[in-house]
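Quarterly update from the structural biology core.
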Amino acid sequence: MKRDSDLNLPPGLEGLADLALDLRWTVRQTTDRIWEMLDAEAWEKTKNPYLILQNVSRARLEAAAADENLTKEIASWQETRCRILERPLAAIKDDLSSVAYFSMEFGLSEALPIYSGGLGMLAGDYLKTASDMGIPITGIGLLYQQGYFRQILSQDGSQLEAFPYNDPETLPIVPARDRDGSRLRVRIVLPGRSLILRVWQANVCRVNLYLLDSNDPMNRPWDRAITANLYSPGQERRLIQEIVLGIGGWNILERLGAEPEVCHLNEGHAAFVVLARAYSFM
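Predicted structure, tokenized:
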């Protein structure tokens, strides 16, 4: 999973790009000090290593690269990660080759704010544990332009809701690729129109998470906002979000040639995958 061509990291720090884009690795506290050393303020506010690598000054990178102990430690982290990636996947059961895990939210890291609470944390922990145990799971979710609201208080103590914008270019994700190497997009049919969905890939060490995004320029403005917020308050948009998750998510698996034996639905939000999978057998 590569997205480091624009980072231009000095020799000795190249491994940081892979670590910053691995959501299983960025939550390991052993690496916290390097991100904090590069930009303490950005680390405190975002907990996003990839954003830090994009914005840190060249002088600070060069100073870090000159620290021989640090570069050896980074190399050791990278070697450990590579060994984990090379481990064989576990055999679940003779008749169970893989699992697709569908969820409206995944709580993997503050760097990828596409969750609100317990449901997302459960889904995120499933993917992390699956990676640790070598269980062949593929995650399917949505990439929200704003995600869930942030609660702030006014001077009189009233609750206000803020919706910070998630810029995909600064998130620890990459554009997903089709089997021929082209940018992966899927299309689903809605009443009177079709909807184009961009697909992004997040890496949880040995587990891939694919995120659907309706904010494609070819969609009409209302449709581009389908994946704007987690748990959209509008009844129609909320229903279409669930269609996107279930049917769009199944389309991703078909495009990638994945053939999961089990589709795990994290609550009823992904119920439409049952229809999509049944249709594939017809």
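Residues 15-86 form one domain.
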